[in-house]
């Protein structure tokens, strides 16, 4: 059979190329860097040795040999894939054991394993909500929560970031105008681009007063916050109706889970389309996550969290001493807002050339005018590595400010 000849004019490419060029011109074009080897603190990225300060591997478990060995053993025993969705033939004993252990860890009756955090949030919101229901959401929620809410068809009430009075007003409206509807308040626990915490105790109280359910995405809190590492919900002593968290950050693996009542999980088994119609994760990933969870829940997890907290305090003090104005975050996420996209890219490149990898975060991930370096610390970093970063960061930051303030730059 002769090869198919391309159309003389590819209409799709013709339409897309100008949009790509506009992204390049606005310094909003994104590129992928290639990592050679493990995704730890010391990495080889695009052929260059560097220190990684932009990972969500907060406890350094992504390259832990015990976690890798658990995956290898499961690969030898259970193979590389699940072969089908969990309701067909893909529900392995490793999946079931992980769900039971996750539920016990966060203190809930049941947990349901999803392939990604995105799938978990879409599955919950589309499964629970319909056009007669109301969703009340923080404006800085993760994109998966935003998309899940929009796709649900529910009335969407968007509230200013962390605005307790705004949430109260929105819940009052929902209660008055939709008394028989399911009213769901959804929020991140730790906001991934700012590193701040949601006012969970106040939001939980409001939900109780207004007859609403509370859903918390604790992706960046699980494993690193709270005495036992149960996350922001433990730290702030809140038990949401729906508890979502991921396994690809502090546990160093992949996947996500939804924890809650037996009724909630059984309902999601029937109605969460992103779970029902997705191939189950490989059993080896579940086995690795079980080992990581045991580390997080044990004495070693306590020590790792203490190390991480000490690193955060040390980094903030060092930056303050050198005039680097970080945002007010006490979590592992330490953003430095630059503002202009081009300047943010320039500082990120300068750091990379000096051996420090920190990604430039630009719109639409963050609001326009707030492009930033999203610096993240892990328990696997050393004080010497942090010292080197702070010194290099301070130099790049002050150089960029001097360049932006110079008459030649202003005229250009």
A few lines on this structure:
This protein is an alpha/beta fold and 412 residues long. The chain is built from 16 helices and 13 strands.
| Cα Rg | 23 Å
The top level CATH class name of the largest domain: Alpha Beta
Q: Total strand count, please?
A: 13
- Domains counted in the coordinates: how many? 2
Total helical segments: 16
Write down the CATH topology of the largest domain: Aspartate Aminotransferase, domain 2
Describe the structure.
The protein is α/β, with parallel strands linked by helices and 412 residues long. It folds into two domains: 31-58 and 299-405, Aspartate Aminotransferase, domain 1; 65-297, Aspartate Aminotransferase, domain 2. It contains 16 helices and 13 strands. It has helices at residues 11-25, 65-78, 86-90, 93-106, 117-128, 143-152, 164-177, 200-210, 232-235, 262-271, 273-276, 283-297, 299-321, 341-353, 383-405, 407-411; strands spanning 42-45, 48-52, 110-114, 134-138, 155-159, 183-188, 213-217, 242-246, 256-260, 333-339, 356-357, 360-361, 371-376. The strands form three sheets. A seven-stranded mixed beta sheet has the order 3-9-8-7-6-4-5, with helices on both faces. Strands 1-2-11 form a three-stranded mixed beta sheet, covered by helices on one side. Strands 10-13-12 form a three-stranded antiparallel beta sheet, with helices on one face. Helix 6 (143-152) links the parallel strand 4 and strand 5. Helix 2 runs antiparallel to helix 12 (283-297) and helix 5 (117-128) runs parallel beside helix 6 (143-152). The radius of gyration is 23 Å and the shape is globular.
């Amino acid at each position: 059979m002769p090869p198919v000849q391309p159309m003389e004019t590819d209409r799709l490419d013709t339409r897309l190329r100008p949009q790509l060029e506009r992204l390049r011109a606005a310094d909003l074009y994104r590129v992928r860097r290639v990592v050679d080897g493990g995704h730890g603190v010391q990495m080889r990225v695009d052929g260059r040795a560097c220190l990684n300060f932009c990972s969500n591997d907060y406890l350094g478990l992504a390259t832990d040999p015990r976690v890798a060995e658990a995956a290898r053993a499961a690969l030898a025993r259970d193979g590389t894939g699940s072969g089908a969705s969990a309701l067909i033939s893909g529900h392995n004993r490793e999946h079931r054991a992980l769900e039971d252990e996750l539920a016990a860890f966060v203190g809930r009756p049941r947990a349901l394993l999803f392939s990604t955090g995105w799938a978990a949030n879409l599955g919950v919101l589309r499964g629970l909500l319909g056009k007669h229901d109301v969703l009340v959401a923080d404006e800085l929620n993760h994109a998966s929560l935003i998309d899940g809410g929009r796709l649900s068809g529910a009335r969407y009430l968007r509230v200013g970031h962390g605005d307790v009075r705004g949430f109260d007003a929105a819940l009052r409206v929902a209660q008055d105008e939709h008394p028989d509807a399911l009213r769901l308040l959804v929020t991140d626990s730790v906001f991934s681009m700012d590193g701040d915490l949601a006012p969970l105790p106040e939001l939980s109280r409001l939900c109780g007063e207004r007859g609403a359910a509370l859903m918390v995405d604790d992706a960046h809190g699980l494993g690193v916050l709270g005495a036992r590492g149960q996350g922001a919900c433990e730290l702030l002593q809140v038990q949401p109706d729906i508890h979502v968290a991921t396994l690809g950050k502090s546990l160093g693996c992949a996947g996500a889970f939804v924890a809650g009542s037996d009724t909630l999980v059984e309902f999601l088994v029937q109605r969460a389309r992103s779970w029902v119609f997705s191939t189950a994760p490989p059993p080896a990933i579940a086995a690795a996550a079980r080992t990581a969870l045991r580390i997080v829940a044990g004495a070693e997890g306590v020590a790792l969290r203490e190390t991480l907290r000490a690193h955060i305090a040390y980094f903030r003090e060092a930056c303050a001493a050198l005039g680097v104005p970080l945002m007010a975050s006490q979590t592992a996420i330490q953003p430095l807002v630059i503002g202009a996209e081009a300047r943010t890219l320039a500082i990120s490149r300068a750091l990379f050339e000096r051996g420090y990898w920190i990604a430039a975060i630009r719109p639409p991930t963050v609001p326009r005018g707030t492009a930033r370096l999203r610096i993240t610390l892990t328990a696997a970093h050393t004080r010497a590595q942090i010292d080197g970063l702070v010194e290099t960061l301070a130099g790049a930051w002050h150089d960029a400010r001097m360049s932006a303030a110079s008459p030649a730059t202003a005229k250009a």
